[in-house]
Amino acid sequence: ENDSSRQVTFSKRRNGLLKKAFELSVLCDAEVALIVFSPTGKLYEFASSSTTKTIDRYERHMKELQGAWGKASEEHMLHFKEEVASLEKKITSLELSKRKLLGDGLETCSIEELQQLEAQLDKGLASIRARKNALFKERIDKLYKEEKLLLEENNRLKVQLGMPSSVPRDQQDVDDEEEDEDMADVETELFIGPPRKQN
Predict the structure, then answer these.
(1) Of 41, 18, 20, 21, nearest to 32 (Cα)?
(2) Among 47, 109, 129, 192, which residue has the least CB neighbours within 10 Å?
(3) What is the enclosing helix (H) or strand (E) of 10?
(4) In this protein, which residues make up the domain named MADS-box (predicted)?
(5) Contact, 60 vs 48, CB < 8 A?
């Protein structure tokens, strides 16, 4: 904030900057142009060749860059427009296919197109049914596991209370199968008519 201190700092940094610009031009064979205005508006400059020539070269270079950027931007915009048009066509085709799958707009379809739609629907229904059956099976297996855990917990509580335990479902199924087999071994005879005399 002190004016005198700021002027001293400016002089030191200006001289250091001019020295670095000179070293850069000499040691690296670079074209350097440096322009500095002091807080009072005084001009300080350094140029390895000519400040005006260096500025002209800079302006020509920037124009070339702007032209290259503009050309690249035009090509990018053209490519972007082509992609947008392609996506619009795909969206239109998908919407038309969706309508046909829902049963709308079938008046213009040929027999081959209708057969293709029918095949797509059959394939989709098969996938839906397979997934539904898999979910049902997972749910049933989960319920069986929960039932088994509840029966085990119920039996444990009955044992603690001195009550007879329940038969698990899998064991009950085995007993039912054995009972069905025993019933199958029993022979029966059916006779229609007057009763026969016993010997």
Answers:
(1) 21
(2) 192
(3) helix 3-28
(4) 1-50
(5) no
